[in-house]
């Protein structure tokens, strides 16, 4: 079920109402049943995969807790991880690996006898697998007690707001919440609905509107001018942010209405001044997952410099692979790895040179240039993420310098070099809605939007709500557009 | 929780009267509008057409057959109900609606071809034209049989059907206030003052050996139903295959098969088949703006020619 569908509106109202009407002891069952229904709305059979990993990890958790022998404990953890990663490997990476084997075999004059699997990738597989893995790892480390209630454990993996695209939760944050008695809280509910409204606005009004420009250009870049390609790439940066953070906001909001606190997944990532800062603000639940369960176990910051850089690069490479079984995602991850390592290595020299220019004395300019640089680098990497093929992505990246020249010529001669598939009015609307988002972000930088709205008179509050509700209903794009991150 | 539920209900219900009023304003405005599609629908529903001769078909009727020329040449009252890119079953349904609100015509001039009449598509071109009429059960039923039917939200949630249709909303409000934009159409016809574009050569590039347009048996059956319907209602039908740029005709591999279908209908129902497949107009690109559509000059020459060819049947 998509958050941006009428079905979800009814689903959410019914589930939330029932949740508060039912006594606490039945609530876990309601939420679990609702989550199953939510997931089965996409493709019912894939619930079996979820069921498989849930059963494995549930018993793995209990075995891990009961086992005093460290070696055996480790064995249980490894078995649980193999089961989880095995499911990922079969459904997500098998065909990718097989394609590469076929390519290599052909180069060597052989035919690859391994057949392809004709299976679809279950929605949100990487998300709930990582969430399940964090449970067994935390139980192994002794940070979390094993959950004995099978229903509650299942709910930890399947809780519908964050089931298909995160945030990837930790058991310490979630499991105790399912045991706690939740009471209806007016302020929580209103704050949750407000967050859902904002998320829906970002998805339906901004992201899916920008997709009207980005989709045709990315699907057929050779038919568009270099400037159009650059514009589409910039718009895609906003599209993917609004799409994913919109999903996260709806997830956080719908959970908050029922009294659950999910972890924050985004924090104005495009205001980052460094790539490392970008990753502290973008998909926070995944970045911290990789930090906690990969980067630190590899040695973290306590290893020699070269090894540290290698580890950092490796984490980004794996992050790219986590996103998708395709070379373009690996390149995307590698680019971010390169940005991070290169940024760290050259930072002292760059800082010296930067001070020499005198720009750091002008704070706003200093900030603007740094933010623009990070945005530009991230946008270049997004091209690989979104392009249909690596060849298309390379073509688009090669168009960037030409685009800058085209833009300059357009300014001087006023001859239109844009051939994007949208009218000037609609383009202006795209820029305007992105502007609205940035305005909200600039307010958020200084104070909490929640507090700000709460302190206004009701007439003003309701006017703002109506503006957003009507924008979504009458300006939103609803062509059954999935969330981009559902594919992972 | 009670306080919250009451406030939520108030929040949801409070704007509904305003939304329904706005929808009424826009619907009414569009039903009065003289703009593009809306003018013909308005004339049809208000029973203002009452023509002796109705031109039906796709854009090949709409931009190629001028009622002004037919009227003056044949001394009758004609009206062009051509609908751009519209499948035949929608044309047929509009004809039935026409007969519900208007006097029965003596003649129907049905444009025929290979792109819409004998193929079965479920497209709904220009869905905006139906928006003010979604409460009409016929329009609702007919548009539900398409690839992209309107949703229940479109039908019942106020103004939702105008989602992302700002120009349509503007036209509705302006027409309601009596300031709508009038299209240049005359009795449904609009000559196109355009020059030849390259779309045909793109088609040729994509289909270097030409293309087969398969004749769909269900579409043929529907066309038969249409002829039966006209016969029952005592309306004389003319089938017209309008001019098309000669190279596009040659690119239609099964053109003879298509021609034969119409010839068989002509013989079976005693319906004249005015065939301009090989007309002299077809040999000059200067008469067309693309391979299937005559420009204004070409359409006026063709309309005059058509009127001349129709005259013998009218005097009988």
Set out the fold topology:
The complex is a heterodimer of chains A (488) and B (316).
Chain A: H1 6-21, H2 24-40, H3 47-66, H4 70-107, H5 125-141, H6 150-158, H7 171-179, H8 186-219, H9 226-257, H10 275-281, H11 284-295, H12 305-323, H13 327-357, H14 363-386, H15 390-413, H16 424-446, H17 449-454, H18 458-475
Helix pairs in contact in A: 1-2, 2-6, 3-4, 3-5, 3-6, 4-5, 6-7, 8-9, 8-16, 8-18, 9-14, 9-15, 11-12, 12-13, 13-14, 14-15
Chain B: H1 2-13, H2 16-32, H3 36-45, E1 53-56, H4 59-62, H5 67-74, E2 78-80, H6 88-101, E3 107-111, H7 137-144, H8 152-156, H9 166-176, H10 199-206, H11 217-232, E4 236-241, H12 246-250, H13 255-269, E5 273-275, E6 288-290, E7 293-294, H14 296-315
Parallel strand pairs in B: 1-2, 1-3, 3-4, 4-5
Antiparallel strand pairs in B: 6-7
Structural features, described:
The complex is a heterodimer of chains A (488) and B (316). Chain A has 18 helices and no strands. With 488 residues, chain A is mainly alpha-helical. The model of chain A has no long low-confidence stretch (mean pLDDT 90). Chain B is an alpha/beta fold and 316 residues long. Chain B has a single domain (2-315), classed as SGNH hydrolase (Rossmann fold), CATH 3.40.50. Chain B has 14 helices and 7 strands. In chain B, the strands form 2 sheets. A 5-stranded parallel sheet of chain B has the order 2-1-3-4-5, sandwiched between helices. Chain B has a two-stranded antiparallel ribbon with strand order 6-7. In chain B, 35% of the residues are buried. The mean pLDDT of chain B is 92. Chain A binds chain B through residues 6, 20, 184, 186, 189-190, 462, 465-466, 473-478, and chain B through 1, 3-4, 11, 15, 151, 153, 157, 159-160, 162-164.
What labels would you give this structure?
heterodimer; A: 488 residues; mainly alpha; B: 316 residues; alpha/beta; Rossmann fold; 5-stranded parallel beta sheet; 7 strands
Brief write-up:
The complex is a heterodimer of chains A (488) and B (316). Chain A has helices at residues 6-21, 24-40, 47-66, 70-107, 125-141, 150-158, 171-179, 186-219, 226-257, 275-281, 284-295, 305-323, 327-357, 363-386, 390-413, 424-446, 449-454, 458-475.
């Amino acid at each position: 079920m998509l958050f941006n569908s009428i079905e979800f509106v009814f689903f959410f109202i019914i589930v939330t109402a029932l949740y508060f009407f039912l006594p606490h002891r039945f609530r876990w069952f309601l939420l679990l049943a609702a989550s199953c229904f939510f997931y089965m709305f996409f493709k019912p059979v894939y619930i079996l995969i979820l069921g498989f990993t849930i059963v494995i990890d549930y018993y793995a958790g209990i075995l891990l807790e009961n086992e005093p022998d460290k070696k055996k404990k480790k064995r249980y953890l490894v078995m649980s991880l193999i089961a989880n990663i095995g499911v990922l490997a079969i459904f997500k990476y098998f065909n990718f690996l097989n394609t590469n084997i076929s390519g290599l075999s052909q180069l060597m004059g052989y035919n690859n006898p391994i057949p392809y699997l004709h299976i679809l990738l279950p929605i949100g597989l990487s998300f709930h697998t990582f969430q399940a893995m964090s449970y067994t790892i935390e139980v192994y480390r002794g940070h979390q007690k094993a959950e004995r209630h099978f229903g509650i454990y299942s709910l930890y993996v399947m809780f519908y707001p964050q089931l298909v695209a995160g945030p990837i939760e930790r058991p310490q944050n979630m499991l105790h919440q399912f045991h706690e008695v939740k009471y209806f809280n007016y302020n929580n509910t209103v704050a949750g609905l407000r967050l859902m409204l904002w998320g829906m606005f970002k998805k339906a009004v901004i992201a899916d509107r920008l997709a009207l420009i980005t989709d045709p250009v990315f699907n057929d870049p050779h038919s568009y001018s270099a400037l159009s390609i650059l514009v589409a790439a910039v718009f895609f940066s906003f599209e993917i942010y609004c799409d994913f953070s919109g999903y996260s906001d709806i997830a956080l909001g719908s959970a908050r209405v029922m009294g659950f606190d999910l972890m924050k997944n985004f924090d104005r990532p495009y205001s980052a001044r460094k790539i490392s800062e970008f990753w502290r603000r973008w998909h926070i639940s995944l970045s911290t997952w990789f930090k906690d369960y990969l980067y630190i176990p590899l040695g973290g910051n306590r290893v020699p410099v070269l090894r540290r850089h290698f580890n950092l690069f490796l984490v980004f490479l794996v992050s790219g692979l986590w996103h998708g079984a395709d070379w373009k995602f690996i390149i995307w991850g590698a680019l971010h790895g390169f940005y991070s390592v290169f940024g760290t290595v050259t930072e002292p020299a760059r800082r010296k040179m930067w001070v020499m220019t005198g720009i750091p004395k002008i704070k706003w300019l200093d900030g603007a240039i740094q933010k623009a640089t990070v945005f530009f680098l991230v946008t270049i990497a997004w091209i690989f993420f979104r392009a249909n093929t690596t060849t298309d992505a390379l073509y688009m990246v090669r168009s960037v310098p030409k685009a800058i020249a085209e833009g300059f010529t357009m300014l001087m001669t006023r001859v239109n070099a844009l051939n994007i598939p949208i009218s000037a009015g609609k383009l202006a609307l795209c820029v305007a809605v992105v502007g609205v988002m940035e305005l909200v972000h600039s307010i958020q930088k200084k104070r909490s939007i929640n507090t700000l709205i709460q302190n206004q008179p009701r007439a003003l509050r309701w006017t703002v709500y109506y503006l957003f509700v009507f924008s979504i209903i009458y300006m939103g794009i609803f062509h059954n557009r999935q969330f981009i991150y559902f594919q992972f | 929780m009670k306080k919250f539920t009451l406030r939520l209900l108030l929040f949801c219900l409070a704007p509904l009267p305003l939304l329904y009023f706005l929808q009424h304003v826009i619907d009414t405005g569009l039903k009065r509008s003289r703009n593009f599609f809306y003018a013909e629908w308005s004339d049809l529903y208000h029973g203002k057409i009452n023509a002796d001769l109705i031109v039906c078909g796709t854009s090949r009727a709409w931009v190629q057959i001028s009622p002004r020329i037919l009227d003056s040449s044949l001394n009758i009252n004609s009206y062009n109900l051509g609908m751009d890119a519209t499948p035949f079953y929608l044309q047929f349904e509009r004809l039935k609606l026409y007969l519900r609100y208007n006097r029965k015509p003596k003649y129907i001039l049905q444009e025929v071809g290979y792109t819409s009449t004998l193929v079965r598509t479920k497209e709904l071109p220009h869905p905006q034209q139906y928006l003010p009429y979604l409460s009409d059960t016929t329009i609702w039923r007919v548009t539900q049989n398409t690839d992209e039917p309107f949703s229940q939200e479109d039908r019942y949630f106020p103004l939702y059907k105008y989602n992302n249709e700002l120009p349509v909303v503007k036209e509705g409000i302006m027409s309601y206030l009596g300031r709508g934009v009038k299209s240049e159409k005359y009795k449904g016809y609009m000559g196109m003052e355009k020059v030849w574009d390259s779309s045909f050569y793109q088609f040729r590039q994509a289909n270097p050996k030409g293309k087969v347009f398969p004749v769909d048996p269900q579409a043929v059956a529907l066309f038969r139903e249409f002829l039966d319907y006209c016969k029952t209602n005592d309306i004389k039908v003319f089938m017209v295959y309008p001019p098309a740029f000669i190279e596009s005709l040659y690119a239609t591999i099964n053109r003879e098969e298509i021609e034969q279908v119409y010839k068989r209908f002509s013989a079976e129902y005693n319906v004249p088949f005015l065939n301009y497949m090989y007309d002299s107009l077809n040999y000059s690109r200067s008469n067309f703006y693309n391979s299937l559509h005559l420009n204004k000059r070409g359409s006026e020459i063709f309309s005059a020619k058509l009127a001349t060819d129709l005259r013998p049947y009218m005097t009988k």
